[in-house]
Amino acid sequence: MLTHKLNVLVVDDDEDDLFLTCDYLSRVDTFTLQIDQEVSYKNALNQMLQDRHDLYFIDYLLGPHTGIELIREAKDAGVKKPFILLTGRGDKRIDMEATDIGAYDYLTKTDLNTELIERSMRYSLQRYLSYTAISESENRYKEIFIKSNDIILVLDKEFRLVTFNPMMTTLMGYGADELSHQPIAGFFVNHEEAVKFIHHIEDNRAENKIEITLLTKGGHRKIFLASSSVIATTDGIGQYQAILYDYTNIKKAVAEQLLKEGMERLVRTMAHEVRNPLTNINLSLHELEKGISEAQKPLTDIIKRNSGRINDMISELIALSNPVDKNEELLELAQLVRSAIYLANDRIKLKEIKLAEEYNDNGCYISGDLKKLQVALLNIIINAIEAMESGAGVLMIRTTVSGSQALIEINDNGNGIPPENLAHLFQPYFTQKKNGMGLGLATTHSIILAHHGNLEVQSSPGVGSTFIVALKAVAQESKFNMYPRK
Known about the structure:
The chain is 44% helix and 24% strand. By secondary structure, the protein is an alpha/beta fold. It folds into four domains: 5-145, 3-Layer(aba) Sandwich (Rossmann fold), CATH 3.40.50.2300; 148-246, PAS domain (Beta-Lactamase, 2-Layer Sandwich); 253-321; 329-474, Histidine kinase-like ATPase, C-terminal domain (Heat Shock Protein 90), CATH 3.30.565.10. The strands form four sheets. Strands 13, 14, 15, 16, 17, 18 and 19 form a seven-stranded mixed beta sheet that branches. Helix 9 (248-288) packs antiparallel against helix 10 and helix 10 (297-321) packs parallel to helix 15 (440-450). The longest helix is centred in the middle third of the chain and has 41 residues, at 248-288.
C-alpha cells in the first residue's frame, strides 16, 4: 500500500537542473514530500547508505562519475529503494543500461513536468512494493525449505535431482555434489519400489502418501512417507516436487510395540496353558518314581529334563515380556562388559576362541539392571562364539563413548547372517540353530530397549557380524566395582 508521506533525494551537480527538478516535485499533490538535494556523488552515496529516503532521482552526469555508477554502487551496498534516472537527452543505450542495473524508470529532462514525475514516482513505488512482497514471500519459503525437518526435493522430467534442501544431505549422508543431478531411482533399495514411486509422482496424486525405503550412503535403510506434486516451469517442461517425511523411528517403534504386545499375550497364554499341566506332570512323576525299577529311571530322567526345559523356556519368556521390571544401579561400562565375558569364559576356552578387548570409554558409567544387562550381553557373546569355527575364531569386544552414548561393539569372524534373516533376527522363535529356541536375541533386544538403548547389527555372510549396543552414558562417577581391572 502506497504511503502519502515520502522522503525524496534528488542528486544533480547542475544547480539549475536541480532547482527545476525540485520545483516540479514540489507541485506534486498526490504525496506529501520531504525533498532533499545533493550535488556531490560521495555525499549522495553516504545519504543513500543511511536509508532515510523512499525514492531517489539521480542525474546521469555527475562530474567525473555517472548516475549509473552511483546506482550500481548503492545497490551493491544493499540499498533497495527505487531509483529514477534523469538525463539531458534521450539515449536508448543509457535507457537499457539503467534498466540492466535495476533503475525503476528513465526520464529525459527536456520532457519533464509535474504530471510525468508524479506518474513515474507512483509506478516506481508500486513496482518496489510488489518486488518487496515477492522477495519477502521468497525468503519465507526459502526459510521453510532450508530449515524443514523433512526432505524437500525437485526432480526433472528424467527424475534426476534438480535441487534439494539441506535435510537430504543430513539424513542420507551424501554431500550435495554427490546428490546433484543423480537419478532418484539409484537411492531405492530395489528397482520395483523406485518404479512404483515414479508412477506415483507421475500420477500427480499429492493427496496420497506412499511409503518408500531409501539407502543412505552408509548402507542404512531409511523409511519415508512421500508426497509429490507437479510444478510448472517457465520453459513449459515441468518438474516434480516431493516431500519425504522420515518415518524410520516411528515404523521401528510401532514394530517394537507390536512385538511387545505379542510377547505379552504369548506369555500369558503359555503360563496358563503350559505351566498348570506341567505342574501336574511333575507331581505325578514324583509319585511314580516311588514304585519304579532302576531300569526305568532313565525314562523318568528324560521326562524331568524336558519338563525343566519347558519351564526354563517359560521363565525366559516371562523375562522377555517384562523387561521394564529392573533394578536401577550405577554400573561402570567396562566392568559390566568384563562381567559378561567372565560368564562366557568357559565357552571361549572350550572353542579355543581368541579374545581381544579394547576399553576406550574413559571410565564411563551407565544406569541399569546388572543381571539383565549381563544376560543381554552374554546372549550376543554366546551367539558370536557359536558362529565361529573352533580354533580359528576371533572375538573382538570394544567399548567407546560417542556424545551421550556408551557403545559396546561385539565383533566375530564367524559365518555371518544372510541379508534376508537380518529383519527377523530379534523376533521370538526365529533361529537357524538346530537346538535353539530363538529367544536369546529377542530377550537381548527387549532388555536393551527397556534401558532406553538401541541394538544394531551389521553382518556379511562368510565375513562375520558386529553387534553394537548403545546405552545412555551417565556423567557422574561411582565406587561400583564388580571385578578388578586387569
